[in-house]
Amino acid sequence: MPIDRVKTGIPGLDEILHGGVPRRNIVLLAGGPGTGKSIFGQQYLYNGLVNGEGGVLVALEEHPVQIRLNMAQFKWNVRPFEEKGIFAMVDCFTGGIGEAARREKYVVKDPTDVHLLIDVLKEAIKDVDAKRVVIDSVSTLYLTKPAIARSVVMLLKRVLSGLGCTSILVSQVSVTERGFGGPGVEHAADGIIRLDLDEVEGELVRSLIVWKMRGTSHSMRRHPFEITDRGIIIYSDKVVKYSSRRIGISVL
Questions:
Q1: pLDDT (tens digit, 9 = 90+) per residue, 32-83?
Q2: Is the entire prediction scored with pTM above 0.85?
Q3: Of 165, 215, 213, 176, residue with least CA distance to 193
Q4: I want to staple 43 with a disulfide (CB 3.0 to 4.6 A). Which of 88, 112, 231, 233 is the partner?
Q5: Domain, as residue range, for 80
Q6: In whole angstroms, what is the distance from residue 220 CA to residue 198 CA?
Q7: CATH code of the domain in which 28 resides
């Protein structure tokens, strides 16, 4: 029986995933600052919107107005999709404070209240018939309470998968950390994609590796990627090889 997959539309990624993300999977997108996590999530959502798939973006670390502006820089204008009723932004950043925040439809007054967030998120998903959800970033929900990290991700997983969404949970890690952003979260997620930005001998190299993905085989190699004026491009035909002295990129 063929696997029901969601095409991410991010150049190179569906090839690495051997066709796309299995539907209803919860994918942890981990990486340090500046690795392109937010761009990755926004690109995934926008590619769904242009194909008629409803989407929800949960904004925990940036003002919704700024997110729309950032997306517009990549020609990802979400306003028409909001007007059509197939895209929603859940504002967990402003707490409803400010003139712009008062214009947002979905506002979580207390983002530390995970159950309140989930209530608003479920409303948004149902209103736009969302098939794709991005939470940026899930780490914010348990940053000061790392012991609850796994339970938070499991709660979100039950809700999002139950509503038929294929979701990306952005996870913050430090520059030097090689983990995935919280104790136990890697076991709760169906998939893990790690983005890295490494400096070797004065040169920065962006790379991506799929650590796991339930329901499908996938590339076991680390692939280079770039952030262009139209978003992320992953080079599925190239592999990044680390050594103690340098980083090399070779063609497969």
A1: 999 999 999 999 999 999 999 999 999 999 999 999 999 999 999 999 999 9
A2: yes
A3: 213
A4: 231
A5: 5-251
A6: 19
A7: 3.40.50.300
